[in-house]
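Q: Give me a backbone?
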Amino acid sequence: MSDETETPASPLSETPAGRPSETPAGPRPEPIRFFGTTWVEHDGGYAGRRAAVAAGSLAAAAAACLVLRFAYQGLRIADVGSAVAVLVVVMFAVCSALAFRHTWDSFGRRPDPERQASLRGLLAIGFIGSLLAYFFRSLTEAPGEALHREEYRVARENHERRTSRRTKNPSRKRRKR
C-alpha cells in the first residue's frame, strides 16, 4: 500500500516539466490505419507513409496473384476438368471486382455494418480487389482521408457553433410588464 494520495484528473494534462499543456478543446481527428493523424496537416512523414502503403499493397496483391497461380496450377495438375478451373477463375475475378468496388466506395462513406458482415466471405475471396483499391487510393491520398477530413470539419464546425459566446447574458433579460 502506498501513502500517496490520488488527485483527481485535471482537464488539462501535464507536460513532463510539470506545466499544463494547452490541448485544444473540441473534437479530435480520427486516426487512419498506417497514418495515425498525420493526414490532418500532412506532416510526420505523411508522403513517405503514402508511398510505403502504395508499395506494400501492390506487393501484397502481386504475391496473392502468385499464390492463386500456384493454386490454379494445382487444379490443372489434379485434372479436375476445365469447367471447375474456369469456375474458380471466374469466381476470383468476380469477387475481386466486387471487393474492389466495395472497398473503393468505403473510402467515401461509412459502410453499413450489417452489409459489411454479410459480405465478409465475398471480401475474403476477392481480397486482391481490396488490395488494388487500397493501392490506387493511396496514390492520391491516405485511403479514407476525404471521408475523415469531411467528418472532422463538420465536427469542428458543430463544436464552434455550440461553444461560441452569446452577445448578451440571457439571465439578465428584462421582463415585460
Observations:
- The first helix runs from residue 46 to 78.
- The radius of gyration is 26 Å.
